[in-house]
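Weekly sync, protein design subgroup
Attendees: M.S., D.O., the rotation student, P.L. (late)

Item 1: inverse folding check
M.S. brought a backbone from last month's batch and wanted to see whether the design step gives back something sensible before we order anything. D.O. pointed out we never logged the input encoding, so this time it goes straight into the notes. Structure tokens as presented (156 positions):
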């Protein structure tokens, strides 16, 4: 797993932002979101630390998720679901939950519930739709982050 997406990594001091993608199993939606966020971070040249985890992580990323992400040019075959603590999430600027959140984080953490269908048990066509929804949410999040970072840099 990429060191930037380890669930309990400590915050980077030079990062523009720290974001987390969380679901129950960390085996579908949050894995897709993490991969799309890694791509956006590179494409936009932003210093964003990415955390990914689940409250009850599965043993592996769902096979159908690996397949549909491969169709999008992203390899998740070596990813392993991770646990994430509320303490870690409270160090993030933004926490995106996938539609299964009962998190109660401190007021300084921007928690966004994306209310996405769990891909577990869904057919490939439906998981492709979920993948596209996840990608759209991640792009919108990075649009927001990019504006915030540019504003902050102007103030420096």
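Designed sequence read out in the meeting:
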């Amino acid at each position: 797993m990429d060191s930037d997406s380890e669930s309990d990594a400590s915050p980077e001091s030079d990062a523009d932002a720290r974001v987390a993608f969380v679901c129950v199993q960390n085996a579908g939606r949050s894995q897709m979101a993490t991969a799309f966020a890694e791509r956006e971070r590179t494409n936009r040249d932003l210093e964003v630390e990415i955390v990914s985890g689940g409250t009850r992580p599965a043993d592996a990323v769902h096979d159908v998720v690996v397949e549909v992400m491969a169709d999008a040019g992203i390899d998740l075959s070596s990813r392993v679901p991770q646990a994430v603590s509320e303490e870690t999430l409270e160090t993030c600027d933004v926490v995106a939950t996938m539609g299964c959140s009962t998190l109660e984080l401190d007021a300084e953490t921007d928690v966004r519930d994306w209310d996405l269908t769990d891909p577990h048990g869904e057919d490939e066509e439906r998981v492709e739709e979920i993948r596209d929804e996840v990608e759209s949410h991640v792009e919108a999040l990075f649009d927001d982050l990019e504006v915030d970072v540019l504003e902050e840099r102007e103030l420096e």
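Discussion: Strands lie at 17-23, 48-54, 94-97, 110-113. The helical segments are 29-44, 63-71, 86-89, 124-155.
Action: P.L. to compare against the previous round before Friday.
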